[in-house]
Specification:
Layout: H1 11-21, H2 25-46, H3 59-64, H4 74-77, E1 80-84, E2 87-91, H5 97-102, E3 104-110, E4 117-121, E5 124-128, E6 130-135, H6 145-161
Antiparallel strand pairs: 1-2, 3-6, 4-5
Helix pairs in contact: 2-6
């Protein structure tokens, strides 16, 4: 059993404790979600994962002089943030997003509509009924240490304004 005795004027402290219970959780989660979304979009500009490691350059980007994961910008433009009073989420519903986030250790692609797949390798055209591909992970979703610091600062700032 614990006894706590407070002496002096505790009204300010009790008001502060009550204010925490009345924080606009929906608004703070919306702000946090948007911050994480912006950080995720920045990763596409920098071609880096949440840990700061550079993505392995894709074959397409190397051959065409483009940028990895940004051929049409569909994936980048699909990043959305959702929030409510209970929390927030940042992600995408693009079909191939998981393949890029987690990688593919070995997938077989087969010709469906024609007799063979036709593609160019090293300047030569090749036809194959099927090919096995390996796609390295290029994580774009997640929280970096910097993201965590920014989330913490945003919450502290938000709480500080609630006085």
């Amino acid at each position: 059993m614990y006894d706590i005795r407070l002496e002096g004027d505790t009204r300010a402290m009790l008001r502060r404790i009550r204010s925490f219970a009345e924080i606009d959780k929906k608004r703070i989660n919306a702000a946090l979600a948007e911050g994480v979304r912006e950080s995720t979009l920045e990763r596409f500009k920098q071609s880096r994962d949440p840990d700061g490691r550079r993505w392995k350059t894709s074959i397409r980007a190397r051959q065409e002089g483009g940028r990895t994961l940004i051929q049409t910008a569909q994936l980048r433009n699909s990043i959305q943030a959702r929030s409510d009073a209970s929390g927030f989420a940042v992600g995408t519903n693009v079909k191939h997003a998981a393949t890029h986030q987690f990688g593919e250790p070995g997938r077989t692609i087969r010709a469906r509509r024609k007799k063979a797949l036709r593609f160019q390798v090293g300047g030569k055209w090749i036809s194959k009924k099927q090919v096995r591909i390996v796609i390295p992970a290029r994580p774009f979703l997640g929280l970096s240490d910097e993201d965590m610091q920014e989330l913490k600062a945003a919450v502290e700032d938000f709480i500080g304004r609630e006085d």
